[in-house]
Amino acid sequence: MVKDASPRSALAALTVPSATLAKDPLLALVAAIAPPYQTTVTIPKKGGALSLTVGPDTLTHRNAILRSLCGMGLHNALDTLGSTPLLFLGGHAAPSFAGASPASALAMAGISSWMSVAATIRDGGAEEAATLLEQLDGYLASRSFLVPSAAPTLADLDVYLAIVAKVQGALESLAGGRANARRWLEQCGATLEELAAAAAEKAEGLEPKARPLPLFFYGDEDESVVAAAASAVASATKSAPAGKKAGGKPAAAGRPTEEQKKKALEKKAAKEAKKAAKPKPAKGGGQAPPAEPTIAALDIRVGKIVKAWEHESSEKLFCEEVDVGEEVPRKIASGLRAFYKVDEMQNRDVLVLCNLKEAKMGGFPSHGMVLCASNADHTKVEFAVPPAGAKVGERVTFEGYEGDPEPANKVSKKKIFVKLAPDLKTDGNGEVVWKGAKSKTSTGVCKAVNGMANAQVA
Prior knowledge:
- This protein is of the alpha+beta class.
- The chain is 34% helix and 17% strand.
- It has helices spanning 18-23, 25-33, 62-70, 93-96, 102-123, 126-139, 154-166, 171-175, 179-202, 223-238, 258-277, 342-345, 408-413, 416-420, and strands at residues 12-15, 39-42, 51-54, 57-59, 300-310, 318-323, 330-334, 348-353, 359-361, 364-366, 369-370, 372-374, 381-385, 397-398, 424-426, 432-434, 437-441, 444-445, 447-448, 456-457.
- The strands form five sheets. Strands 7-6-5-8-11 form a five-stranded antiparallel sheet.
- Helix 2 (25-33) packs across helix 9 (179-202) and helix 6 (126-139) crosses helix 9.
- The two termini are 45 Å apart.
């Protein structure tokens, strides 16, 4: 248990089971940074349930607890300049009270909505996270953050952590060529580093797991300097608490020690010697780099939804049985309840991405993805459908691209769908294309069911 204040001085009492704390880095950060004379934090090792008591009221929903801690629950102490490394609610908590500022009230509603999106991503799979990241690139083209704010808010950090937990990999593979999404990812990651340092100083026992800070170079440094700096930052990150070495002395901020420089130089020398010892291939006889995947790597088939029902615990998901020409229908979950009624799902002809690994979505085993077209802010969504007469189980091909689909484990490991998805769209006529190449079955071209033009397909 962490005691940050006497009960007489505390405004709020937060109970967080240790298992919950270990799985929720954002909750751990906010709990650690909460003002010590306003909050008591209890961490039961066994049993207990997440709750926040503020005066006569008790909250049990995680998102509501976070917003209360960052807003009115602690008199906006975590949403005031100078109190923390950022404004957790974008500075909108106080102005939104009693409708004083309609703009701030809308921003607060936006934070709540985006945190619900983060919850959906946590319940979903890597494909849903990758799709959201693609949509965010367009959404952030004219915005710095998810809601009007001078810095990342709870919404940004919650969505960021949900995405990186599902789409594993370096920043380059996460963002790809999406400049807006990459800028946002970098800012959220850097902000979390600041919060981690602040949390480590304030609340022993609540330190979040450290993550290496990004390293920046001018490009003309020697390779050994780059390697040594990376080693130094990694060593500093592993130490506890943040910013200190095991012996208690402050670590040099990203500066390599002499021993680390020596090891880096030795490693470089060994690498160069090994490279020199390798026989050089004959001129013109070297291996060609592996070819980039094309849309032919995906197994998109004509399917029919034979049964659909509402997910018992998710307000966004339908559960479906979809015939894709196999012995038994596939079970697939789709986040379409905001756009279709359950009776509109029955016996629907659809396009299904089949070579995806099975993943749990809200506890439901989903094996595939029903493809839909959507606009940039995901407020309009409609099915991508085959032409009339297409046979269930028939594979959809694209003009000029031939080849067998890759196995599901390779699609997942190499993030093939993530790489190909940005170019899977509808054209000006609402027809499904990849890099302009039209999708085809034996009876014609696939399209968005209502003809949505220039939309993303996922």
